[in-house]
């Protein structure tokens, strides 16, 4: 959405305000709108204005989590700016710049760049940041070659206070938006644990199925199959339990035991027993796969609900930071944006219905706790409901001018599909200007414009713009 749309919306709001005031000569004069001198931003990748625009990231033309660069020659909406940059322009403020830059990743890949503090910049939001936990997505502690800094919001605020005498200036607009990475880490951990539980159960069932199937087949030709099966099963189990044994040695022990059974010597020939081994392996694969999938799903179902109160706790921490470290430290105009509905992102839509339901519950739990946590601060904190807006955008894309609300606009780059590296050269086609998503979780510039427009309209309604 072009910035002229913002101006028209604000102009219309101003006209309506003026007309409303003229009907009542006894009404009090409206409060003077604040004049902001600075914009201070805390949060994660949706608000990051270039923390990682260094090294190989910068060389690739990336740096922000959207479609990077001015690509308006392709489409007017591909302006390359995120919502905090667009909002700053509406406030006639200088373009936001990152408070820190750097990476702690692989030197061989150009991701080891010293951290630099930009003391004149107040864009503290950085990709991968969580609310209080310092380990977010792409952090080196998780084995990432990129080595994102992921300073949490609590550290971002502390850094700002340290730079500014422990207080916020009353003429600063303070923006806070975080929590998405807490959800991603929690979901990633749950997925890893469920996968491990499924793999363990699948291997257990597969092993048992293989042994039973092979034993039954090898014993079938013996004079007394029941007696033969007992001897074969014992030999297979004994060898399997021996330190240093392998599947091959266990099969060999079973075949040897089978061939010594009365009437069963023919089974020693590879032409006879190898097809039996193949059939047992096929049955084991099917049984193990089914058991593993069921066990993984059961683990997720049993442990997934616990993520909802964990997200609520993260929201309570964020609200407490707003209350005790921002408002209590002098901020008088705080824009607090809740989480969009992460269950509707391309990343979530390819997951199971139960997973999508869990993600939606996590987002809802976070947003409810966040809203409750700022009760009583309404005069200084503007709560913007991005969740409801994102749901309507997905359900009614044409209403917002969105041409595609499901497909990421960015294709693969040499560093993967993250929008951090996405530029006009990596678009899936040249008709992506009004796509909502850049990659499977981050917004394209058009989606960023929608956030800026929503926040600007909320500020108009609050009398802050």
List the helices and strands and how they pair.
Layout: H1 3-21, E1 38-43, H2 55-59, H3 83-90, E2 100-104, E3 112-117, H4 153-163, E4 172-177, H5 180-219, H6 225-241, H7 247-259, H8 270-303, H9 307-327, E5 334-337, H10 346-349, H11 353-373, E6 381-384, H12 386-395, H13 445-462
Parallel strand pairs: 1-4, 4-5, 5-6
Antiparallel strand pairs: 2-3
Q: What does this protein structure show overall?
A:
The chain folds into 2 domains: 3-11 and 35-185 and 308-462, 3-Layer(aba) Sandwich (Rossmann fold), CATH 3.40.50.1110; 193-303, no CATH class. It has 13 helices and 6 strands. It has helices spanning 3-21, 55-59, 83-90, 153-163, 180-219, 225-241, 247-259, 270-303, 307-327, 346-349, 353-373, 386-395, 445-462; strands spanning 38-43, 100-104, 112-117, 172-177, 334-337, 381-384. A hairpin with a 7-residue loop joins strand 2 (100-104) and strand 3. The longest helix is centred in the middle third of the chain and has 40 residues, at 180-219. The chain starts with a helix and ends with a helix. Residues 1-27 have low confidence and may be disordered.
Summarize the entry for a quick read:
This protein has 465 residues and is of the alpha/beta class. Helices cover 48% and strands 7% of the residues. The protein has a 4-stranded parallel beta sheet with strand order 1-4-5-6, sandwiched between helices. It has a two-stranded antiparallel sheet with strand order 2-3.
């Amino acid at each position: 959405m072009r910035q002229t749309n913002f101006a028209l919306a604000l102009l219309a709001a101003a006209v309506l305000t003026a007309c409303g005031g003229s009907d009542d000569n006894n009404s009090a004069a409206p409060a003077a709108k604040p004049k902001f001198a600075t914009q201070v931003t805390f949060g994660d990748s949706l608000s990051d204005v270039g923390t990682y625009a260094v090294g190989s990231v910068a060389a690739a033309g990336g740096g922000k989590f959207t479609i990077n660069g001015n690509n308006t020659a392709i489409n007017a909406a591909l302006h390359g700016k995120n919502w905090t940059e667009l909002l700053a322009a509406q406030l006639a403020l200088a373009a936001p710049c990152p408070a820190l830059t750097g990476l702690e990743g692989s030197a061989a890949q150009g991701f080891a760049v010293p951290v630099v503090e930009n003391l004149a910049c107040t864009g503290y939001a950085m990709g991968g940041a969580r609310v209080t936990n310092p380990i977010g997505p792409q952090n080196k502690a998780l084995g990432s070659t990129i080595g994102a800094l992921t300073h949490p919001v609590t550290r971002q605020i502390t850094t700002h206070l340290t730079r500014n005498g422990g207080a916020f200036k009353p003429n600063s607009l303070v923006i806070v938006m975080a929590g998405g990475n807490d959800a991603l880490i929690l979901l990633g951990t749950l997925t890893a644990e469920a996968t491990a539980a499924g793999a363990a159960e699948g291997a257990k069932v597969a092993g048992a199925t293989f042994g039973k199937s092979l034993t039954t087949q090898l014993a079938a030709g013996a004079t007394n199959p029941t007696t033969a099966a007992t001897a074969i099963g014992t030999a297979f189990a004994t060898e399997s339990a021996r330190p240093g044994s392998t599947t091959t040695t266990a099969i060999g022990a079973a075949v040897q035991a089978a061939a010594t059974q009365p009437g069963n010597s023919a089974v020693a020939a590879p032409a006879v027993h190898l097809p039996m081994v193949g059939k047992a392996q096929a049955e084991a694969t099917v049984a193990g796969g089914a058991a593993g999938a069921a066990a993984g799903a059961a683990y997720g179902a049993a442990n997934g609900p616990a993520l909802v109160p964990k997200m609520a706790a993260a929201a309570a921490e964020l609200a407490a930071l707003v209350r005790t470290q921002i408002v209590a430290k002098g901020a008088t105009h705080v824009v607090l944006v809740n989480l969009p509905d992460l269950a509707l992102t391309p990343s979530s839509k390819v997951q199971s219905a139960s997973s999508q339901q869990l993600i939606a519950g996590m987002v809802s739990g976070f947003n409810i706790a966040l809203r409750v946590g700022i009760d009583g601060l309404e005069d200084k904190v503007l709560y913007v409901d991005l969740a409801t807006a994102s749901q309507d955008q997905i359900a009614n894309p044409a209403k917002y001018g969105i041409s595609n609300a499901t497909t990421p606009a960015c294709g693969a780059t040499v560093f993967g599909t993250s929008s951090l590296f996405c530029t006009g050269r990596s678009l899936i086609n040249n008709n992506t200007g009004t796509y909502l998503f850049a990659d499977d979780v981050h917004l394209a510039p058009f989606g960023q414009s929608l956030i800026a427009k929503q926040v600007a309209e909320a500020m108009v309604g609050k009398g802050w713009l």
